[in-house]
Every structure is written in C-alpha cells, then in structure tokens.
Amino acid sequence: MKTLNRFSIIFLLLAFLFGTTVSLAPQSASKAQTPDASPPDHPVKLIFIHHSTGENWLADGYGDLGRTLGQNNYFVSDTNYGWGPEAIGDRTDIPNWTEWFSSPNTPTFMQALFTEAEQHASYTRTLADPGGENEIVMFKSCFPNSALEGNPDDPPGSFEEFSVSGAKYVYNTILQYFATRPDKLFIVITAPPLSDSTYAKNARAFNNWLVNDWLAENNYPFNNVAVFDFFNVLTSPDAHHWFKSGQIERLLTGRNTLYYPSEDDHPSIEGSRKATEEFVPLLNFFYHRWQETAPRQILATPFDSTLATSAPEAGSQKEPLPESPTEAPPVEPLAVSPAVTGVIDDFDSAPQPWEAFYDEAVPTTLTCEVNAGAGRAGNALVLNFNIEVNSWGTCVLFFDSPQNWSASGGITFYFRSAQAGTLFDVDLYAGPAENRETYLYTVEAPPESVADWVPLTLRWADFRRASWEENAGAPFDKSNEVTGIAFGFGSLADAPNTGMIWVDALALASTLSLLGEESPLVEPTEIAPPLATPTLTENPPAQTPEATKPASRSLLPCASALFLPLAMVIFSVWKKKR
Q1: Which residue among 26, 39, 395, 479 is least packed, with the fewest CB closer than 10 Å?
Q2: Nearest to 427, CA basis, from 370, 482, 358
C-alpha cells in the first residue's frame, strides 16, 4: 500500500509539472464490479438524441461512431431535427432537457424514444433489430451550449437558462426522472467546446461539475447515469476521457477551447474519431456496471435532489410507526424489484383525493389519510382500519379521466404493516361507472413488513375479475382504461380484521424485462366472506360512494360481491345530486 501511494504521488506531481490534471473514477464506481470494457455479449438497443455535431460523429467516414457502436454489439437508432411527438427532436439545447425528461409530456416523449428503431443519420447498421425497447439513451447539446453566462462557481439556480446556474438546475431536475427508470442507462454527452474563449472557463467549470459533482451532490444511488466529457476530449490531443488500465481516467490540459475545428465550430473528422475511440470502451464499462444492479434497483419515491442537500426543518422529523424503529434501515429489495415507469401517487406532491368508505351499520371504522413524514423519504398514505365480522372498508382513488396504462407491466409500491398477517386487497376499476369492471388481488403482510418497508410488484395478469361480475376470474387486460385504484379490507372468518398499513411510492412498473414470469413478491391469502349483506353508507357524506370491497384473488365471494350493485345505484344518485 505504501508503494502504491508513493507511485500515485509521483504520478500526480509529474502530471502537474506537465500541465495536465488527472481525474480518476470514483472508488464507488470501480468497486461496483470487476472492471470490464468489453462489448456486451448480445445486441443492446441504443438511441442517440442529437443534432448536427452528433450526426457528424455518427456518420461513416466522419466520426464513425455509429459503425463502431455496431461493431461493439449496440443496435443504434437516433433522433434529429423534426423527430418525435410535437417535433421534440428540434429542441436539444440544455434548457430543453426539462421538456424531454421533466414535463407533462415526458411519458409521451419517452414512449416514442424507447420504441424508436429508425436511423436519422448516415451510418452503417449491420446488426438485426433484436426487438424490445431501447435500453440506452445518449443525449447531447450542440456547441452553442458552451456559451454559458454567469460565473464558474455559480450554484444551481431555480430555472432553466443558458448560464452555469441554469444548466445545473436543468441537470438536477432531470435526474429525478432518471431515478425512476433504473431499467434504462442514460449517457450524458457534454456539449462540444467553442473556439471563442469568452465563456470557456464557465463551460469547463460546468462540465467538471457534471463529471465530478453532479451525482455525488445529489447522493444519487444508482448506476444508470453516466457522463462522457466530449468537451474535454476535443480541447487538446493530450486531453482524454477514457477507460485506461482498468479504470476511468480524465486528463485535462488547461485548454478550454476547441482544438479540432472544421470550417466552423463543428468538431473535425480527427476530433470526432478521437472521441469515438475513447467513448466506446467507456460506454462498455458503463453498460456492464449498470447491468450488475439494473434489475434489482428501485427508488421508492420520485428522487428529490433537495433531500440530499437541504437541512431538515425544525420539527420535521419522521414520527415513528407503532412498534417499529423511528428510522428504518436501508431497504434491501426482494427477489424481483420493479423499475418505475410512471408515478400514480407519490403522496408528496399535489394531494390526491383518496376516499374512505366503510359499513356504518356495524362498528367498522376506516381512515385513509396522507401523513407527513410517514413515508420512506417523505409522506405516505396511512390506512387505519377495524373491519367487523361480515363487514368491509375501502380506500379509493378515482381518476378524473380514464388512464391508459398499457405501456407498463403492472403496478408497484412499498408498504409497511403494524403487524404481520394483516390482510388487504389491491383493486383496479376499469370502464365507465354504469358498466364498471372490478379486478383485485389480496395480500398478506409478511413479518418483515413490521420492521421495514417491503416492495411489492403486481403484474396485470395477477389481477382477476371479481366473482360477482361477468367473466369472473379473467385476468386484467392492460388495454383496459383504468378509472380507479383502491386498497380494500374485508372481514376475517370469525374475527375483526384490525390493523394499520402504510403505503408509499405507488407507481406503474416496467414490462417483462424486469417483471418476468415470477409470482408476486408477497403471496396472496384469502379473506373470508361475510355472512350477511352490509349496508353501504358514505364516510364522510361529501365523498363518492363508488368504492366497493373486492373479493380475494381466490375469487371466493366476499362483502363487495353483495353490496356492489347497491353501491353503483347510490353512486349514480349521488352524482346527479352533486
């Protein structure tokens, strides 16, 4: 160890004497796996978002990136001007990335991006399309984006603009989306340098921040985001960002302007090919590092960079859950954890109208409220229930408009329970109110859910049509438009069903690549049916009595089978009065 330290000191001193800065890969990255810069062992689908510089970089006879990626087992597609919904391909400046990755249109753009398989630049593709979605997303802004105003050490701002602070704001913002998709690898390509030195120090400082500080400052937990410093590689023949001697090296020379110009600030053939030689082995390393953890990672709530940098306010500590530690240890995901594709309710942003309904003819009670600080990293939905024998209770979220969830593979959420063995249902409602379809699945809380959060993935096929409806037992068809989702509680066979559960990070899960054909993470347990028909009432009166208590996955009859028709009648009358 002493010899190694002495060598490292000598190496750094030599680098200093020759005007070169050395930046090595973080230890956390190198320890994640045995370093591997070999090509993937099977074709991997990749898409590159770019404009003219990227087009030149990809092109045969210019940068040769497209052909070289193909030789390394990447099936390459790309976007360019005019591509995609609302011609989003026209907009690739740094301030535009929030529209791509953090806007109401993001699901639409990403669906188009992940399924794109065409070429929009001239490069050779010899691989056959392996099918499925693009797994790797590369994106780059063009050289005008190196004219960032402000000062080199400006902190992140509060809106998008062509400045150091505005650019940091953009990348902090879009990182929140990347955290919801650990099943995709996102590669940031820094903007090329300019020949003009006016803003060169700002560009250098921002790109140093992207490579060295961006992920660390946000305590980013996944390996699905990486940065290639295209800017640095093009500033000097001695400037590099490559995989060398089993680790990532980034060598800086002190020059911050373009060394490889063509007739304008587009990088030349020589500069583009240098970037190709250095980038592709580095991409291979990023890919293998990501693959080691991609199927097992999940972020339970939408990633919030402020959590990593903001001090907690006074009185903001989490309140402990009953019979559980105040601060839960880090969650170790179970055998199959999902990748999130879209948030249904994170319980932290805009409040959703969850509504509680229960049988008021007996001493049954149910409350479902969003409690501050009760979640894994914020708020959670807390359900406190005492369901008498032959009774029921349901907590429902109905949507203002039908939801199309066909692009996902199921739903995912985290939950805790005050005691092991607690029984609850997860319900889906589809179709219009006058012809509503009910699909459901019953869960028994495992012992580990008492002390810690448990992740649960349910595939669409795990939800079965309620026994009181036509086609009882039929699996849910994901092409159905979903009108509501609920957590329900039935009675036990001979005792009240009493307890408390906490739900967090309710979201859609990605498709077969992660969900596979495995059974759900928590095995179902039947809830015994009541012996008498309950009377449906509202709680509180202003809420929609549309929710019903579903049957268990075994499709034995339960309370909801008896009162559903009555619920539909009451709901219709209530709607008209309201």
Answers
A1: 479
A2: 482
Pick the closest to residue 10 from 98, 429, 22 (CA basis). Answer: 22
Q: Which of 183, 171, 46 is nearest to 119 (CA)?
A: 46
Comparing CA positions, the residue from 239, 157, 147, 222 lying closest to residue 191 is: 147
Quick one: CA dihedral 519, 523, 529, 535, positive or negative? negative
Superfamily of domain 334-577: Galactose-binding lectin (2.60.120.430)
Contacts of 168 (CB under 8 A, 6+ apart): 154, 155, 156, 157, 206, 209, 214
* Cα gap 555→9, rounded to integer Å: 70
DSSP H helical ranges for 385-467: 448-451
pLDDT at 137 (0 to 100) = 98
For residue 75, what are the contacts with CB-CB under 8 A and spacing of at least 6? 43, 44, 45, 46, 125, 127, 128, 129, 130
DSSP string, 141-171: --GGGG--BS-TTPPP-SS--SBHHHHHHHH
Q: Where are the domains of the chain?
A: 19-296, 334-577
CATH topology classification for 19-296: Rossmann fold (3.40.50)
pLDDT-based confidence at residue 150 (cuts at 50, 70, 90): very high
Query: Which backbone phi and psi does 398 adopt, to 5 degrees?
Result: -95, 140
Question: Which two structure tokens, joined as six digits, stand for 341?
Answer: 């594709």
In the chain, how many H helices and how many E strands? 15, 21
Structural tokens at position 431: 């179709």
Q: What is the residue whose two structure tokens read 């400046």?
A: 93
Look-up: residue for tokens 């530690």? 325
Q: Cα 301 vs. chain centroid, distance in angstroms?
A: 9
Going by C-alpha positions, the residue among 440, 278, 261, 412 that lies closest to residue 344 is: 412
Q: Report the residue count for the chain.
A: 578
Q: How far is CA 307 from CA 115, 218, 301, in A?
A: 33, 8, 12
The span from the CA of 232 to the CA of 206, in Å, is 12
Dump pLDDT digits (tens) for 482-515: 999 999 998 776 788 888 999 999 998 864 333 3
Residues near 193 by beta carbon (within 8 Å), at least 6 away in sequence:
143, 146, 200, 203, 231, 234, 235, 256, 257, 258
CA angle, residues 80, 98, 189, in degrees to nearest 5: 55
Q: Identify the CA nearest to 275 among candidates 56, 451, 120.
A: 56
The CA distances from residue 538 to 312, 357, 507, in Å, are 39, 6, 27
Q: Look up the pTM and report it.
A: 0.53
pLDDT in tens, 107-149: 999 999 999 999 999 999 999 999 999 999 999 999 999 999 9
Q: How far is CA 479 from CA 461, 475, 488, in A?
A: 12, 12, 24
CB atoms inside a 10 Å sphere around CB 140: 21
